[in-house]
Design goal:
The chain has 458 residues and is an alpha/beta fold. 38% of the residues lie in helices and 11% in strands. It has 16 helices and 11 strands.
Length: 458
């Protein structure tokens, strides 16, 4: 993911020539020198190639590259090994959060149902020494509800806010980083301020869950399993670091593929892994794996669309009709009332569609209220950390299978989750409180110098 001092165009040329340089390894020598030898010492180094980077606009710095590299399997096992030492001051509670878009990958790989895969994955992580494996659906619930709230507020103030629309979803870190580092302040004010599910989960784990366990945030090591490498970069954002406790909301991100690598290194047979149910932040277990509407993402477009139709126009939308425009990764949804189009939403997946979207926006020809933006063509299931071949090409058959198994998972709306409402009341002091705003929202800071190459061929 690191390509220091290069331009976007140069990155593109290297991609085309398959000259993907690996991230330099400034930490490996120092880490290996002080690392305790253990059964985990055989683990391969994390390798992130330029083709894995979705937002290589201005490229990451050397320091960021080193921090990304440090989020690997060795970091997890370093913590697990410290927990075996007699010095309890070094011990940390290890909590893992698993992305809903990662579970179908394990289901297809091991020929299991999604529910079976979630229990096997939970059991495997616990067999390594992870103490708790949490269901992250609640974090996505919060993210969607806060996105809905942001949209309604923007709609009502649009006459005095030139940046109210279009409103862009904020769940994809590849898209957000591209907007900040390349597109700049012409785009960042349009991005919803709600945190992504990963980072809301970080707030829940280091906030509510830590308090529930009577621990300070720095005494918890929070691992997330995610479908893409950009989640590693997201975890490093400055606003997700708590200076008081000198810790991040998410300490380490492993892709689904990296977890598979651990299983292979451990010669783990999935049949022999003891199943264990996912847990929730209240300390109970989740009996059923559920999802939101939409297989490629957490269903932001569908949920915000229905909510806005009801809240703003008192219309109940049962079925959503998607209209495919230039390609299957750019779709449109409209709401009409009295012969007039009152809501116009879109889903734009992949950087080719994002590029076209930004060009039209800058020309004043992009007339949408809300856009669900994802950097990966095909959506989050197609994340480069789980749906790519060795040479970096998409595994289309694998993606199709993941979509198939995911559609069989029961759908639950964010509004119907009683745990969310309980946390709004008991922990966040109300949905409209300042604490809710501080905990569930973030801000976007465009880079001082942007090097946008909008004619780049993705």
């Amino acid at each position: 993911m690191k390509c220091e001092n290069c331009t976007k165009t140069e990155c593109s040329k290297k991609k085309k020539k398959n000259e993907d340089p690996e991230v330099s390894d400034p930490l490996s020598a120092a880490f290996a020198e002080g690392e305790e030898k253990s059964e985990f010492h055989r683990l391969a180094e994390t390798r992130i190639f330029l083709s894995d980077c979705l937002a290589c606009g201005n490229c990451v710095t050397s320091e960021e590259g080193a921090q990304i590299f440090a989020q690997n399997q060795k970091e997890l096992f370093r913590i697990l090994n410290l927990n075996k030492k007699c010095d309890t001051s070094l011990h940390r509670l290890v909590v893992a959060s698993v992305s809903p878009q990662s579970v179908p990958y394990f289901a297809v790989k091991f020929r299991l149902s999604v529910c079976e895969a979630s229990r096997k994955l939970c059991g495997f992580l616990k067999s390594l020494g992870v103490h708790h494996v949490l269901d992250t659906t609640i974090a996505a619930d919060f993210s969607i509800l806060e996105t809905q709230r942001d949209f309604i507020q923007r709609f009502r103030r649009q006459t005095h806010d030139e940046h109210a629309f279009p409103m862009f979803a904020s769940a994809c870190p590849g898209w957000v980083q591209y907007a900040e580092r390349v597109l700049g302040d012409s785009v960042t004010p349009h991005i919803c301020t709600a945190k992504s599910p990963q980072q809301i989960m970080g707030s829940l784990v280091k906030g509510y869950f830590a308090s529930h366990k009577n621990l300070s945030p720095d005494k918890i090591f929070h691992l997330t399993v995610a479908p893409c490498y950009d989640r590693k970069m997201e975890a490093l954002r400055e606003d997700y670091y708590t200076a008081l406790y000198k810790c991040r909301d998410v300490d380490c991100v492993l892709t689904s593929g990296e977890v598979i690598q651990i299983m292979e290194q451990q010669n783990t047979s999935v049949k022999e892994v003891e199943e264990s149910p996912l847990e929730n932040v209240f300390g109970g277990t989740s009996c059923q794996f559920v999802r939101h509407e939409g297989t490629s993402s957490d269903g932001y477009l569908a949920h915000v669309f229905r909510h806005a139709a009801k809240e703003l126009f008192d219309m109940d939308v049962k079925e959503i009709t998607y209209k495919t425009l230039k390609n299957k990764d750019f779709q449109e949804v409209c709401l009409e009332k009295d012969g007039e189009t009152v809501l116009r939403f879109a889903a734009a997946y992949g950087f080719r569609n994002i590029q076209n979207m930004v060009l039209k926006l800058r020309k004043g020809k992009f007339h949408y209220h809300f856009v669900e933006v994802l950097a990966c063509p095909g959506g989050c299931l197609n994340g480069k950390g789980q749906a790519q071949t060795v040479d970096g090409k998409p595994e289309r058959a694998l993606l199709h299978e993941m979509e198939e198994v995911f559609t069989r998972v029961p759908v639950r709306s964010p509004e119907s989750n009683p745990q969310v409402q309980e946390l709004y009341t008991s922990w966040l002091e109300g949905a409209e409180s300042q604490k809710s705003r501080d905990t569930l929202h973030t801000k976007y800071v465009p880079a001082t110098h942007t090097g946008a190459k909008l004619d780049m061929k993705w």
